[in-house]
């Protein structure tokens, strides 16, 4: 992490995007690569959709993963708290 | 969760999408609502972009959240394992 903003150009689904943020360039490239993969995967099964609709469906799928991971995360957090209380 | 597939129509950024999956309709609507919010937020700061680019950037932001939450999740998992070993 740096206090300066990084400005990185990535390619997603054959389009260039300039991403500005405080994250490391390697992190930004990794995240962009994952989105590119997911978009290409959606496209294989929905070739009739335009790019905008494919990208929205990709965002929906990633958000679905996020919400489910968040539930798992909170379950783990409660488990860790209970574990801590058990040995107080 | 049901073994049957649900078929839900949601509205994201004023477009309708039919989402098919085994998740509860309420979960699908919740996830779609979150994506709609994020897409509108991106649009406020990038009004010059077309919808397809806005949607890809939305997907990038959500994936960024996912990757960071995944790191937190794994940190917690290791902590829980260490906690368990401490009291073995």
UniProtKB/TrEMBL annotation, chains A, B:
Signal peptide positions on this chain: none
Location (main, coarse): cytoplasm
Subcellular location: Cytoplasm
Assigned keywords, A-Z: Cell cycle, Cell division, Cytoplasm, Septation
GO cellular component, one term: cell septum
Pfam families cross-referenced by the UniProt entry: ZapA
Keyword flag Lyase: no
GO biological process annotation, one example: septin ring assembly
Keyword Cell cycle belongs to the record: yes
Alphabetized SUPFAM superfamilies for the sequence: Cell division protein ZapA-like
Assembly mode: Homodimer. Interacts with FtsZ.
Task performed by this protein: Activator of cell division through the inhibition of FtsZ GTPase activity, therefore promoting FtsZ assembly into bundles of protofilaments necessary for the formation of the division Z ring. It is recruited early at mid-cell but it is not essential for cell division.
Protein's name in the database: Cell division protein ZapA
UniProt source species: Macrococcus hajekii
The gene coding this protein: zapA
